Amino acid sequence: MPFALHCTTASTSVHTHTHTLEMAMARTTTLLLIVAAALLAASCGAWEMNIGMPGTVAAVDDAVVAPLIHALRPLLGSGSHAGMACDSWRLGVEAYNVRDWKTVPASCEGYVGHYMVGDHYRRDSKVVVDQAIAYVDSLKLAGNGKEVWVFDVDETTLSNLPYYAKHGFGATPFNVTRFNAYAQEGSAPALPETKRLYNKLLSVGIKPVILTGRAEYLRASTATNLRRQGYSGWMNLLLKAPGFKGSSVAFKSGEKQKLQDAGYIIVGNIGDQWSDIIGAPDGARTFKLPDPMYYIG
């Protein structure tokens, strides 16, 4: 049967070409992986060397490093936690779906570090602050001196990235003694985007209230650090009193309630933790800055 023979021959030819094509694609993929891995090693080596320098935080060009990291992660199976990709884990953290975690997953340390020291973190923070400033511009202010905006300190007005770069970007258990020693140095840099919002509020007559979970004995070093970084003119700097045993939500809610009871209107509230912004009274509008390095409940 010539027709049947012709079909068989054509089928064999197609399978042969398909097999050849698959082999070529496999070789190409292997070569691309080798090249990408070499480039990634060079890029990551420079990044790791930069963030390892004491007291410095280096900016890394996401456009160069990120595509390599993100291209290799799904292929090589790195950067995941219990079957979850690290970018998905970070989204879960920021959306308040992943809660009560103690440390960044060990396999995500590099991912979180790259996010924090690269341009991505700054871009995400800018989006939040742009929205906050647009909200401020929309307000009809009474101008009676009773309108306030609540700010957190750590990873909100000040950045502790120089500390966390030396401690696994949150992948190692938090050591309160070491962190408080760092806080007492008063050397934390400002978060530029938050500072932009802070200055905007001062210009329109909204009074900043700085509310932090830091212990009262860190008041002097915290105030000095804030002033060194260009923050001034706040109405209150509120720290946790000695002996307080409640949660962060309970502490901050209590302090905000005192403001409200005194006749102040909380027109805005910004922080890096959900515990900064949830809990009544939370303010007329809340803004959550990114922070995948630690969780405070």
Can you describe what's shown?
This protein is of the alpha/beta class and 297 residues long. The chain has a domain of 167 residues: Rossmann fold. The protein contains 11 helices and 7 strands. Strands 5-4-3-6-7 form a 5-stranded parallel sheet, with helices on both faces. The chain has a two-stranded antiparallel sheet with strand order 1-2. Helix 1 packs across helix 2 and helix 5 packs parallel to helix 8. The chain is globular and about 50 Å long.
User: Strand percentage, roughly?
Assistant: 5-15%
| Helix content class | 40-55%
**CA-atom Rg in angstroms:** 25 Å
Work out the helix count: 11
Structural class call reads alpha/beta
Reported CATH architecture of one domain: 3-Layer(aba) Sandwich
End-to-end separation: 77 Å
- CATH class division of one domain: Alpha Beta
**Average pLDDT level:** 81
CATH superfamily of one domain: HAD superfamily/HAD-like
Pfam family, one: Acid_phosphat_B
Family: Belongs to the APS1/VSP family.
InterPro entries: Acid_phosphat_B-like, Acid_phosphatase_pln, APS1/VSP, HAD-like_sf, HAD_sf
GO molecular function, one term: acid phosphatase activity
Concise structural overview:
The chain is of the alpha/beta class and 297 residues long.
Keywords:
single chain; 297 residues; alpha/beta; Rossmann fold; five-stranded parallel β-sheet; disordered N terminus
Protein topology:
Elements lengths: L1 H50 L10 H15 L3 E2 L2 E2 H9 L14 H9 L1 H20 L8 E5 L9 H4 L11 H10 L6 H13 L2 E9 L3 H10 L7 E5 L7 H14 L3 E7 L2 H4 L8 E3 L9
Parallel strand pairs: 3-4, 3-6, 4-5, 6-7
Antiparallel strand pairs: 1-2
Helix pairs in contact: 1-2, 5-8
